[in-house]
Amino acid sequence: MPRLSAVSFSTLAALSLVAAGCGRSPDTKTSSAASTPTVSGSTEGSGESTSTITTSTTPVTYASAESAFTSKDYSSAKELFTRYSDGNPENPWGYYMLGLSDWRNGNREEAVTAFDRALQLDPNHRKSLYNSSRVLLELNRPEDAVKRVEQALGQEPMSNEGLRLLGRSKYQVGKVDEAIGAYQKALSVDDHDVWSMNNLGLIYLDRGRSNDAIPPLARAVELRPNAPVFQNNLGMALERSGYPTAAAKAYETAIGLDSTYKKASIGLARVTGGGQIPEETSIDLSTFSQQFQNEIAGWRAEAPVDSSATGVVTDSSVTQPVVDSGLPLGLSDSSRASVEGVSDSLEDSQQE
Prior knowledge:
- By secondary structure, the chain is an all-alpha fold.
- It has a domain at 207-307: Tetratricopeptide repeat domain (Serine Threonine Protein Phosphatase 5, Tetratricopeptide repeat, Alpha Horseshoe), CATH 1.25.40.
- 57% of the residues lie in helices and 3% in strands.
- A two-stranded antiparallel sheet has the order 1-2.
- Strand 1 (38-42) and strand 2 form a beta hairpin.
- The longest helix has 18 residues, at 285-302.
- Residues 1-55 and 307-352 have low confidence and may be disordered.
């Protein structure tokens, strides 16, 4: 080792006094600033020095970032997953969760960027494909959404979630028949998919086919009677099909489930205050529900589903594009995700 030049004690003392007189303490240099605590010294008012240890640069674990997300602290989740991804740039799941966090914070463009980073690392990352397509629909970019959904379906063509999302994307680009076909196929895979039932009914309503809308909406309400949005949409189908009394009952149920549901309140006032004559015969919604179940059985017979190869994804996301067609309704879907302990359980969106 080279020998350092000798410096006199008096010279060192003089240099120390100069530094103290300038009011600055020398910077602490370390070989690893990211993992070494910062030490700051202070001699003001005392002949002794004190040290403060700062550990803000402690590496973020996936579990801690996930905990913030599952606690719905999405601002913290964004910060933590940003730091996690900076420290683990090879892991697509970090960017995926960052995308979800951005999305829940309302940062759609940033969410797409994060999902794209995950897809750069893993081009077939299905959850990033599905959820980025949902965000793209919210950004009114349905053509781009269709491409991503179709890419994901190329890996798992019988994914109920993918087929439902394909139906939404196709309808948003104006391909009505393809959208209906996608929902029918989704229901062939999962005959309890209430959101595909709801969305299919909404397409029929939007196209002026209110009678066709009743069976899928009646079945959706039968499976999930506590969903005000389903009750409201069924009320609309019944009202337009000439069943004002049954429609009023559906609207009342929706309001009972959600007293702030303005569109259901407007619908109820419309059917009860407009002097309409109640239908002469009662309507049995269970009959319509059974009719729709028979339709699903027919679709399955036409295109048998291999349940062992469905690869149904339980990813979550929320999709909430608002479709304003002049009707008190909208297209919606929901799902749940469970990936390596990741659970982005976003609630069902009620797009209207």
